[in-house]
């Protein structure tokens, strides 16, 4: 999975999104914390300023303290502390007031100084407009300030002076607002741990929300990458289906993304070049095999007549016999090349008929005993195996397998034929003892002009085309020919016919 480009693309999208969300979340969290602390200081100053207007007894200050904790949204009342100081003595102080903050030692702001010499407002501003004739005189206005119920003293004339600060008491950090108006001094303190708890909730909520978001982004990137990589899948599918009969396929570029258009064009041009090259090579091999067929047949006939005319047992006759063997070998090569060229072009014509495979294998076994009397033969072929195939070509496949088993056998080895009828058709196994090591890739057996003997000497007849021809014939019948694993010193070929 880690080697999948689609998986890495989805993972990269998730990682980049996660990094962006972490950076954004960290910045937003820091900004939110600063704003929350600023709002706390503002609320503390507002409450401290409001409570400097009146004097109260201790019970009323306790009620105010509880109400302030509720107004500020503190679940723990001990997170808020209140102190009232008249400049000499402390009128009220919360039981949990920080021990290090003595009210008398706090840096109270200086009270606002009233300017007694301030000029009175202009007469015209306070004089009523001249009355018209016959208009009654308005009642005199009450210039006294209004008093709230429960006030023990008149409200101070000046506006309260308020300051806020942050102080530490041991491991606790307190935000304190100090308000002074007249002789009243009110201090309201809030534990910063309250804001820290709120920010911890925000952090936990972000941590819980991050994994689902990343999974959603990764899943979306996975789906999007499938759409983005669709042209590559098309290229893969076309490449997998490429064959001699499919080189004329082309991938349309209409509707594809601009980044893939060039790649598809290059791929289509490559297919065109491959098609032309394959056609030229196929035409050359077919023409060469066809053109060699007639002169080789003529040469073979003349050599046979020359051998008959030569003196029996003479050196000339022996030389002519050797030349005739080579001509026959060339004729076999040209015939196999012609068959392979037709198979590559998909033009291998089959004359299908009902072939008694059991009888064909029995006949092949008799021929094998005559060709290699020094070998042991075993057969496990049930009677009545019938397949629809080209009899001549199927006989050629079986003969090639037998010839291969005889050529590369040991001195006193064995050959075994097995056949079975299954759900997918008939399967034939031809196995033999062998002194040849099996290659790491058994497909090397089917490469053209690759012989089983590693030394490539001429002691073993053949040119390395027999198994290639046999496989092409099997595939033309809709079957397959493969080399199956066997223990050391044994080689087995499996032929499937459908």
Keyword list:
498 residues, alpha+beta, five-stranded mixed β-sheet, 12 strands, 17% strand
How is the topology of this model organized?
Layout lengths: L4 H47 L6 H14 L8 E6 L4 E4 L29 H4 L34 E9 L2 E10 L2 E8 L1 H36 L1 H11 L17 H52 L5 H30 L7 E5 H15 L4 E5 L5 E5 H17 L6 E9 L2 E9 L32 H11 L3 E5 L5 E8 L1
Parallel strand pairs: 7-9
Antiparallel strand pairs: 1-2, 1-5, 3-4, 4-5, 6-8, 9-10, 10-12, 11-12
Précis, in short:
48% of the residues lie in helices and 17% in strands. The chain is an alpha+beta fold.
Explained architecture:
- The chain is an alpha+beta fold and 498 residues long.
- The chain contains 10 helices and 12 strands.
- It has helices at residues 5-51, 58-71, 123-126, 193-228, 230-240, 258-309, 315-344, 357-371, 391-407, 466-476; strands spanning 80-85, 90-93, 161-169, 172-181, 184-191, 352-356, 376-380, 386-390, 414-422, 425-433, 480-484, 490-497.
- The strands form 3 sheets. The protein has a 5-stranded antiparallel sheet. A 5-stranded mixed sheet has the order 7-9-10-12-11.
- A hairpin with a 2-residue loop joins strand 9 and strand 10 (425-433).
- Helix 8 runs parallel beside helix 9.
- Residues 116-127, 132-136, 141-156 and 454-459 have low confidence and may be disordered.
Topology as H/E string?
Answer: HHEEHEEEHHHHEHEEHEEHEE
Largest sheet: 5 strands, antiparallel
Low-confidence stretches: 116-127, 132-136, 141-156, 454-459
3D shape:
rod-shaped
Q: Any idea what the radius of gyration is? A: 52 Å
**Widest sheet: strand ordering:** 2-1-5-4-3
Name the beta content range.
15-25%
Q: What's the average pLDDT?
A: 79
Record field, number of beta strands = 12
Distance between the termini: 37 Å
């Amino acid at each position: 999975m880690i080697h999948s480009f689609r998986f890495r693309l989805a993972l990269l999208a998730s990682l980049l999104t996660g990094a962006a969300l972490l950076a954004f979340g960290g910045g937003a969290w820091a900004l939110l914390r600063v704003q929350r602390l600023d709002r706390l200081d503002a609320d503390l100053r507002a409450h401290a300023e409001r409570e400097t207007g009146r004097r109260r007894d201790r019970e009323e200050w306790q009620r105010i303290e509880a109400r302030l904790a509720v107004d500020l949204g503190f679940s723990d009342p001990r997170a808020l502390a209140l102190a009232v100081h008249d400049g000499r003595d402390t009128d009220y102080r919360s039981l949990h007031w920080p021990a290090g903050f003595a009210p008398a030692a706090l840096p109270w702001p200086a009270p606002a100084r009233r300017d007694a010499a301030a000029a009175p407002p202009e007469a015209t501003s306070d004089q009523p407009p001249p009355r018209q004739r016959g208009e009654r005189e308005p009642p005199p206005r009450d210039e006294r300030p209004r008093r709230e119920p429960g006030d023990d003293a008149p409200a101070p004339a000046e506006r309260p002076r308020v300051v806020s600060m942050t102080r530490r008491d041991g491991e606790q950090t307190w935000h304190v607002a100090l308000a002074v108006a007249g002789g009243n001094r009110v201090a309201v303190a809030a534990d910063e741990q309250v804001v820290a708890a709120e920010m911890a909730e925000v952090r936990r909520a972000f941590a819980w929300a991050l994994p689902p978001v990343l999974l959603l982004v990764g899943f979306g990137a996975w789906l999007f990458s499938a759409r983005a990589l669709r042209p590559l899948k098309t290229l893969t599918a076309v490449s997998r289906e490429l064959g001699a009969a499919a080189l004329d396929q082309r991938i349309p570029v209409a509707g594809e993304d601009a980044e893939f258009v060039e790649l598809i064009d290059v791929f289509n041009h490559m297919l065109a070049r491959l098609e032309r090259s394959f056609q030229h090579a196929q035409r050359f091999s077919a023409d060469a095999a066809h053109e060699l067929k007639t002169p080789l047949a003529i040469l073979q006939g003349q050599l046979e007549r020359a051998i008959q005319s030569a003196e029996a047992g003479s050196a000339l006759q022996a030389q002519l016999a050797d030349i005739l063997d080579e001509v026959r070998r060339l004729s076999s090569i040209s015939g196999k090349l012609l068959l392979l060229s037709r198979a590559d072009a998909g033009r291998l014509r089959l004359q299908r008929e009902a072939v008694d495979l059991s009888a064909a294998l029995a006949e092949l076994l008799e021929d094998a005993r005559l060709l290699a009397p020094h070998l042991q033969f075993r057969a496990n072929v049930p009677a009545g195996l019938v397949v629809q195939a080209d009899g001549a070509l199927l006989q050629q496949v079986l003969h090639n397998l037998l010839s291969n088993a005889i050529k590369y056998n040991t001195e006193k080895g064995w050959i075994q034929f097995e056949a079975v009828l299954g759900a997918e058709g008939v399967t034939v196994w031809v196995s033999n003892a062998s002194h040849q090591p099996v290659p790491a890739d058994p497909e090397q057996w089917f490469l053209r002009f690759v012989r089983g003997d590693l030394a490539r000497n001429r002691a073993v007849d053949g040119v390395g085309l027999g198994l290639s021809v046999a496989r092409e014939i099997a595939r033309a019948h809709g079957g397959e020919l493969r080399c199956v694993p066997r223990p050391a010193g044994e080689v087995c070929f499996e032929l499937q016919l459908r």
